[in-house]
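I am still getting used to backbone structure tokens and would like to learn alongside you. Please make up or recall a protein chain and show it to me in full. Would you write everything just below, so we can both look at the same thing?
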Amino acid sequence: DDKGKRIVASSKVGSSQNQDLLIRVPPHLILSLETVWIYAKSDRHLLEVLEAVGDYSRTARGAILIFLLLQISHNASAESDRVSVSSPWTQYVRFVPPEENLPTFWSEEERALTAGTSLEAALDAKLKSLEREFIHLSDSTSSIGWCQRHWWDTGTDGLSFYDWKAVDSMYRSRALDLPGTGHAMIPYIDMASHASGDDTVALYETDADGNAVLIRREGRTVNVGDEVTITYGDDKGACEMLFSYGFIEDSMTFARGLFLDLEIPDDDPLKLAKTSIARSPPGFKLFESGGFVNWDGDFVWLVCVNEEDGLDFRLLQTIDGGRELKVFWKDQEISPSSAFRDFLQVEQLWDVFQLRAVATLQSRVEQQLLALERAKASSPSMQEFHQAFYPHLNITKLRDLEEKLMVQAYEDFEHKKNTLLTSQVVQDYLASANREQEFPDEDDFT
């Protein structure tokens, strides 16, 4: 219908306590990392590509994208030179068109509208990642005869970057985190629309036999003609919803969360070492919780401490004779699985470290707010666009929601900063630093 593909109830569900099941999908129809490799046992074309791309095909996303690509190639190839073998998914992908409303399909003009939002950096990184993946696929399979013939030969309607973005959009907008299976595509259930909070009608689960099931949410009655909805994640922020699904809920009044990148200052003598050992994304996440804006990001603590505080880097020899850079905090090695914050919060100067972090975060939020204001001032007005210009409608809402979140974050950080400045530990530290600046050590000419 005019709302696209969706799930609508054909009979009433919920009149009795045991009447919960809406849809059941057997295990062999669930497209997961495991089932892709099972299909590969009887599909030499699929197996050749999976093996050619190496570790990439050992991830759910990598394996599923390659499988979808071969299903599309199968449908497009002539019967005399057919690619891959037919499967239940071969016909299904005909009814799963690329999600061209996703930002990865936007034009350069449309992408420019993301300036000042957290979507700008996320979209730029995603497009670069997709391009790297596509180049890896080409380099890995160009020596395979049928791949060269169907995909890479010039003068043929082979694969393009658009095709790779297409299978990515199918996966990204439809994959679900199925309990007991992991990220997977589930036919029919993946057609359910999103609704958060009390508007969610159904939940997806795995039953005792390994089937994926869509069940009525407790307390909900589904009448004939009602749309059956699921939640794609009530905690997902406006940027993530637009990035992954191409829309922002009308009912969303707060951005919920956003990620801002963060750079280590160029004058930091340990910048190169910090960058090379950083195990968390170079930035931080802002999120609303209990009426306040909180943050999360271990990378921030790495930015805020240095050698004089107790941070140290050592180049150690490995068992095989190689060299490996290790990070230490006051002679205690920080393992890859350790959170840097755990080492800092037991220190006497913990309030000082917190103050540095909050000041860094506030400065970065201010920088983003200024960038957003500049972008809004230079963007074309809504009147210059057709009313159905979908990206502009979503970007306008994203800007408003993220601005609201960042303004509150700035105010909350200001309050936290002022509170920390009353700490005796902070006051003693600042007084000591001021004395050192006022009375630096005199040169000793003895």
